[in-house]
Amino acid sequence: MTIKLKVRYLLLTFIVGVLLSNCTKAYIPKDNESQLSPAITATDTIKYQSHISVLISNNCIGCHGGSNPQGSLSLENYNQVRNSTENGTLIQRINDASDPMPPSGLLTNQTRSLFDRWVQNGYLEN
Ligand code: HEC
Hints:
The protein folds into two domains: about 30 residues; about 90 residues, no CATH class. It contains five helices and no strands. Helix content is about 50%, strand content about 0%. Helix 2 packs across helix 5. By secondary structure, the protein is an all-alpha fold.
């Protein structure tokens, strides 16, 4: 191989590498489950303070907080989140593939199931 060809080969390898690493990134779920601590097991009781509020902060509060929340829906505290879950459309919207919340796309199954478990566990606050 001439030097020129070697350089081209290295360049190509580099470009393919960058493209591949970008593809891998796209599959990392945006609601980073590692932010849930400690890790949640199938038998854990799901509570607002320990589990739900961090999910809302990471995925919803940017639009559903502050003085002018989107859709006139504020999700800043236990009562507001519980009310939207119990009497509103929160569960429906986080599971609605054609009109999801967050609008950027459905959260992972595991994350969405935590909301169901919170309901089943009786909307515990802490
Ligand atoms: C990028 C901004 C954005 C994010 C992030 C977002 N929402 Fe929304 N949400 C909206 C907008 C805009 C509306 C009003 C339009 C609509 O209903 O689609 C809305 C409406 C809703 C509604 C219906 C409100 C009602 O009473 O009719 C629910 C429930 C909801 N969002 C829940 C959530 C939850 C839960 C999350 C996080 C998991 C979330 N949203 C994340 C922008 C956002």
